[in-house]
Write a structure and sequence with these properties.
Length: 571
């Protein structure tokens, strides 16, 4: 339940993007390409772009939202009444309710529970921003204050006499007007801040959000609050036009990507709507998605999940230009046909996906040979330093009578092997890694490897199709598909369906279950492993009963494009 609650808190993130990013992160851990320095310590307060929240919830009733979430067929099976109970009776809400009741009792007020009941039941706009750790830590809530006028006036009069309710500060608006901000302490180191602003009750999570100390941030806040209607600013950020349904949740792809937005720049955000007909979903696209029919014909069947990712010219140009500068790189870039297919298989690992992309040319062998040699591989085991010679001793200065110890050297990356395929070539290089798929003893390079395992990283260029994976077995299967010796994923798709993504729950659950148990050794992570075994693995087991689905978007469309979910027969 803890894991599932986190999914809901982060905006009902679709499993497709979660797995895509998990795979990208795991692949990144292998350190096969650019190794970035570790990040520095997070600042105490990270300045936010107040006009661009990472997520937005527009709802007619916050209290009804958790119950309506259970009306999603998938979540109805995976969640239970504990999910609703958690959000209706969470510790935070209990603390807040107790504090309001105490204030009402001690000051002999005729409101208490009614105040919170109105706040949770009235239409609201809830904007959220991520904190330094990546979670949605900061929020700003806007609700209609028409039903709270008397209560707010009363609270303003008792500020001086209450130990938990106080006037925290005042914000100077652009026109010079002062906006009083009140702080309500409702637990140990727990506070919320609120203000009566332009006909709305404005509630926010922390003083740093709208009461910063930095002069530049103060000016930014004043400019932000100069907007006549903040809720219109938030809906404009996500291009939410027209009448709002019962619930509307929008989450920016920039937030979902965890820093990997460059892998799918055409996706701006995801949206989930709930209305009289139930839940629906949509994707905000800034560029039309190209047809993927041809690339699905080259993908081997049996995938757990696949996505057709558009090739972003700017990103690819920068990457190829660094590894293959000049005319060879330009020719290669001009030959790529978008989209690329990225697939995960239960017979492999989450961090070894298969990538395929079609090309317009058949004479790219020299460029690809150079690109593969430069982009893969790393120094291997340390080479024993040679013993010092008499010449080294004679060269030593009188002060330093013995020569400095020689620097440690490493075995260079192993040689690239190549073999022909239909109208092309296959390149292969062994790269040692503790995450590798093969034991080192299976390689003739075993003695020079720095790890007990290795990857047989492979790149194939056959029949004008580029095929790459750290798992050489997947590359061989894709080559067999091109040779009509292995079934293609397209063979299982209904005629006329051109999806952008495919999800096969049974295979996906098995792949995730294996990865979770391997990444949480029982001897090293007993508590976390026990929690996963108790709460998450049974949910994965339940998910196996769901049918495979294809996610389809209207071809050539941009803006908010409805996502169509089509059930498939899992092969």
């Amino acid at each position: 339940m803890t894991y599932l609650r986190r999914i809901f808190k982060r905006g009902l993130v679709g499993i497709l993007l979660i797995l895509l990013l998990a795979g990208a992160f795991a692949w990144y851990r292998l350190h096969r390409f650019t190794i970035l320095p570790p990040p520095g310590p997070a600042p105490a307060y990270l300045p936010l772009n107040l006009a661009r929240p990472d997520a937005l919830i527009v709802t007619q009733s916050l209290s009804q939202l958790p119950r309506d979430v259970l009306k999603v067929p998938l979540l109805k099976e995976l969640l239970n009444e504990d999910f609703v109970f958690y959000y209706e009776h969470s510790l935070e809400r209990i603390r807040l309710t107790g504090t309001v009741r105490r204030i009402a009792y001690e000051h002999d007020l005729n409101f208490g529970d009614e105040l919170l009941a109105y706040a949770f039941a009235t239409p609201a706009h809830l904007a959220l921003w991520k904190g330094p750790d990546g979670s949605l830590q900061h929020y700003l809530l806007l609700i209609d204050r028409s039903g709270l006028v008397k209560a707010l006036e009363t609270l303003g009069k008792i500020v001086a006499d209450d130990k938990q309710l106080k006037l925290r500060d005042a914000i100077t608006l652009a026109d010079g007007e002062k906006l009083p901000v009140y702080e309500l302490e409702y637990g140990y180191q727990r506070s919320l801040f609120f203000a009566d602003y332009h006909g709305s009750l404005l509630v926010f999570s922390g003083a740093g959000l709208l009461l910063p100390a930095n002069p530049e941030q103060i000016a930014t806040v004043a400019q932000f609050l100069a907007q006549p209607r903040l809720e219109a600013l938030f809906t404009k950020r996500f291009k939410l036009d027209g009448p709002a349904p019962t619930h509307q949740l929008a989450v920016a792809a920039e937030y979902l990507s965890f820093g990997y937005q460059r892998f799918f720049p055409a996706l701006e955000a995801l949206r989930f709507d709930f209305g009289p007909t139930g839940w629906s979903s949509a994707a905000w696209l800034t560029a039309a998605l190209p047809p993927a029919e041809e690339v699905w014909k080259a993908v081997p069947t049996g995938a757990a999940m696949c996505i057709a990712a558009p090739v972003h010219p700017a990103t690819v140009t920068t990457l190829i230009g660094q590894l293959l500068p000049g005319e060879p790189g330009t020719q290669l870039l001009a030959a790529l046909e978008s989209p690329a297919a990225l697939c995960w298989y239960r017979r492999s690992r989450l961090y070894t996906p298969l990538m395929l992309i079609k090309t317009r040319r058949s004479d790219l062998t020299p460029q690809l040979r150079t690109l593969f040699a430069q982009a893969t591989g790393s120094p291997e085991a340390a080479i024993p330093a040679p013993a010092p010679t008499a010449t080294d001793a004679a060269a030593a200065t009188p002060v330093a009578r013995s020569p400095a110890p020689p620097r440690k050297t490493y075995h260079p990356p192993f040689a690239v092997t190549e073999q022909p395929c239909s109208s092309g070539m296959i390149w292969r290089r062994e790269v040692s890694s503790r995450y590798g798929l093969h034991p080192a003893k299976a390689s003739p390079n075993a003695e020079a490897m720095r790890s007990a395992k290795f990857f047989a990283v492979s790149l194939a260029y056959c029949e004008q199709t580029l095929i790459f994976s750290p798992d050489d077995a997947l590359v061989q299967q894709a080559i067999a598909v091109l040779a009509k010796q292995y079934p293609a994923l397209a063979d299982a798709l209904p005629s006329g369906l051109d999806p952008v993504a495919l999800i096969f729950p049974r295979s996906l659950a098995e792949l995730l279950g294996t990865e979770l148990q391997d990444s949480l050794p029982e001897a090293q992570e007993p508590v976390f492993r026990a929690s996963v075994a108790r709460y998450l693995l049974p949910q994965l087991e339940k998910s196996k009963q769901f049918p495979a689905h294809a996610l389809d978007l209207s071809s050539g469309a941009t803006g908010w494009v409805p996502i169509r979910w089509s059930a498939l027969v899992e092969p």
